[in-house]
Amino acid sequence: MSARKSRADRRVDLIEAARRAILRHGTQGVHLNHVAEEAGLTSGAVLYHYPDLGELLVEAHHAGMERFYELRVKRIAQCGDPVQKLVVTVRSGLPVGPDDPGVRLLNELGGAAARNRVYAVLLTTLYDRQVAMYQSILDTGAALGVFTLIGDSLTIARNLVALEDAYGYRITARHPVIGPDEAAELILSYARTVTGNPLEATG
Amino acid sequence: MSARKSRADRRVDLIEAARRAILRHGTQGVHLNHVAEEAGLTSGAVLYHYPDLGELLVEAHHAGMERFYELRVKRIAQCGDPVQKLVVTVRSGLPVGPDDPGVRLLNELGGAAARNRVYAVLLTTLYDRQVAMYQSILDTGAALGVFTLIGDSLTIARNLVALEDAYGYRITARHPVIGPDEAAELILSYARTVTGNPLEATG
DNA sequence: CAAGCATTTGAATCATTCTTCAAAATCGAT
DNA sequence: ATCGATTTTGAAGAATGATTCAAATGCTTG
């Protein structure tokens, strides 16, 4: 069967397996066997590492969020000017398609957060970090004179992240006309208005 | 125990009970007994009216959506000028608090829509209808000269609904600083910018 | 008010999932 | 190579939920 692994390795495997199982069955609908199956193990083995399935699911969501956020940070870091940063950041917050695993995992939590305090905190924290991310780009651009902000950067940043979130849901729900490109354009239309910058691709 | 009821009455009861059960346990997590308990019946009785729990859940979500939408339409109808209409509409799209049942029910579907075609269609349709609602208000205001739209009304309407959706999630997840008032102000800040109207409360 | 129909119960059955645990397998260290 | 500890299996038992259905209940109509 499956090879033996060290404690740490196996836990990483299981978090990954749980992530896939959640995408298949939903956070509420996942069962121990789903996770075991995804990991290529038996339910007993999963329980050996995570006696409480709930904790594993939380870790899976947590890991998924961190991955999502870190990916965005990395992509921004590769950009030079604030204009490019802003455009790239908008894109990196949207799913690449209806099946994008990163965004789909986040969307799973929308409902659960209203019932589960832990999930609520995770989601809220992610939102706030993304807002700070945008705010930093906006403030830098304003300081350099490339952006002329209409309103304060906090308000704009909050709205930008909100738009991303919402269009993420629309895209994963397969809206017939709003795909990644259209969503990006909708968000950028807002960004253009409030930054006074045409936000053309540079380079 | 519970009095006997006619077929039609009981189905309404069950849809209502299912709605409550969904709020308690999530769309994935609801079980037949949860619904039966909410309805004050046994699982057998529920099954008599709805042999397939899945169908009952769909009807519950559908009914909840219609109620939510119709309430908004009614509130708009009571407003006179487009400015008041816009302000009232923004408010009516947001939860009144973290426990607002209408919005919480909608939020439940976010994750499920990625896996379930029926839920995806329901959500997408609701989104489009809300967009049309806003678009009508914006176009009327523009025609009357009270709004000077920056960009086309479809783009603005899509973004307004998107913002509502996203802040609905934040509020139900109990964001520590973004409550109904703050969310309304964030959305209105966008609306002010793109309509060129201060959107002060009239009357 | 009795007959007939629709509704509901309650209990039995079946299926699924969770949990436990002894035995087996695997690995690392000596 | 062998020992000892860790990991995994597989099977058994407990718990929960879905499903079925005969019997009971309560309307409604004639």
TrEMBL record, chains A, B:
Q: Which Pfam families match?
A: TetR_N
Origin: domain of life: Bacteria
Keywords of this entry:
DNA-binding, Transcription, Transcription regulation
Query: Which stretches make up the HTH tetR-type domain?
Result: 8-68
Q: Name one GO molecular function term.
A: transcription cis-regulatory region binding
Report the leader peptide range: none
**Binding region for DNA:** 31-50
**SUPFAM superfamilies for the chain:** Homeodomain-like (SSF46689)
- Protein name per its UniProtKB record: TetR family transcriptional regulator
The source organism is Sphaerisporangium melleum
